[in-house]
């Protein structure tokens, strides 16, 4: 009897200890930052560090419309300790651009960092539709300094088979080193090959057919499958399709993230960092947040045994510290 009581006491102590240890694990928290307001995340991993590139919502509380002039970079070695490196790119850095620093995407290639960004063109003859064009800035380090890589946009309203709203570029360097740029909004998605110099198209702009696509494409590859995730419908959920080729055909798979309270836009990035999969998105979760005052969040992304992405469980605790 004495022995049983003793074992029971040890068991209880072990359970209590493991519960405390669990509570001791630090978490990122969501939204990640109380200030500045951040939106439209893009991420890359370099030298064991995760770099987060975001847009910046500057609209006043209670006013409508996006007011976005600059992009920030943040970094973390462990998902919990974040450094705000400040504004690293803005509309003024591009002579050809006038306004609207919408969603960009930074990728590494040839030892350099290429930050693709959409903005409204300042040349009225180039503004045939909504006037957005996509350019690229380059740097030798993820944190910059960045400078316009070619002095002109890669895609504009005047590009053959471009779309009404040329925004939300995502660039993917494939295993055979071929570079692709996808972009799109208002239910239209496009893909084009880029030359090795990362600044010019290499062939025609093709139409991408992905069920329910609205905007915000993001490509990632897992094993031999390409995953194309995107904002679907408006107000947007995040949904995805898969293919064995980046050129498609894309097979619809389902919803990753439900619509967000108080933000019709839903813009995601997906990455594996130190063995963990992450879903990075924005919400309107700060006390003075709203559709034009968004904030970046991070939650766990999980696959089932068939490689299907499970629906994201959004949290306010965020993700645990990684070593
Ligand atoms: O932030 C401006 C626009 O809203 C982005 O380009 C879209 O993806 C949506 O998030």
Automatic annotation (TrEMBL):
Pfam families, alphabetically?
Glyco_hydro_43
- Catalytic residues, chain numbering: 40 (proton acceptor), 215 (proton donor)
Site entry: Important for catalytic activity, responsible for pKa modulation of the active site Glu and correct orientation of both the proton donor and substrate: 168
Keyword terms of this UniProt record: Carbohydrate metabolism, Glycosidase, Hydrolase, Polysaccharide degradation, Signal, Xylan degradation
GO annotation, biological process: xylan catabolic process
Family membership, please give it. Answer: Belongs to the glycosyl hydrolase 43 family.
Record's protein name: Glycoside hydrolase family 43 protein
Q: Which organism is it from?
A: Plebeiibacterium marinum
